[in-house]
Amino acid sequence: MNVRDQQAENTKNAILQVAAKMFLSQGYQATSTRKIAQELNITQPNMYHYYKNKKVLYIKAIEYSVNNFSKNLLEEYSKTKDLPFEELLNHMSKYMIENFRINYFVMRNDIENFFTVEERTSLNNNWDGGYYKVLFNIFQSHKSELRSDLAIPVQVGTFLTMLLPYIEYNDAKRKRNIANLNTVINIFINGIKKE
């Protein structure tokens, strides 16, 4: 790759990093491409040279962020996969909360309200391909310990539904959520009913 191509690649990645940070914290509607360009000290036309409009930039920024996070999550899983189920689930959940900064409910609202069915499908597939895959591996590798009347995808989906509200952008909320994580996972695994 020549110097010019490398500079272009660096600019594209810098745009994605800043856009992802803004989109994931503020949402689609509250983030302007002008602010993204200003943050990078480039012009909007320069940014649109790489990403033709705000929607394309949003989709690419989310993909970039999720792909990077998924790669790191998979590496963390590889290092800890031999832990007992509850400990592993707790560890990986804590890792997700600590390392993926997102305002999840704002993002889901944005995707539902500002994107076409095709765009939503693309975003959802990318989103599910990362952390879902790791959690599926965790549940699958411990399936002998889990209920056989509930399919693994149902168990993973239910766990994610419970976990996602704990993944926040705000530092104080994330710390509070981590403090409550053991209890939530214990309730998920063992229920609340007396034996």
Which key phrases capture this entry?
195 residues; mainly alpha; HTH-type_Tx_Regulator; DNA binding; TetR/AcrR family transcriptional regulator; DNA-binding; HTH_TetR
Write up this protein.
The protein contains nine helices and no strands. α1 packs across α2, α1 crosses α4 and α4 (54-80) runs antiparallel to α5. 22% of the residues are buried. It is mainly α and 195 residues long.
Concise summary:
Residues 32-51 bind DNA. This protein has helices at 3-26, 33-40, 44-50, 54-80, 85-99, 104-114, 117-141, 152-163, 171-190.
Largest sheet: none
Based on Cα principal axes, name the global outline: elongated
Rg over CA atoms? 19 Å
Low-confidence stretches: none
Mean pLDDT: 90
Distance between the termini: 64 Å
Approximate strand percentage: under 5%
Find the count of extended strands (DSSP E, 2+ residues): 0
- The sequence of SSEs as H and E is HHHHHHHHH
> How many separate helices?
9
Helix content: over 70%
Class of secondary structure makeup: mainly alpha
Pfam family, one: TetR_N
Keywords: DNA-binding
Domain HTH tetR-type: 9-69
GO molecular function: DNA binding
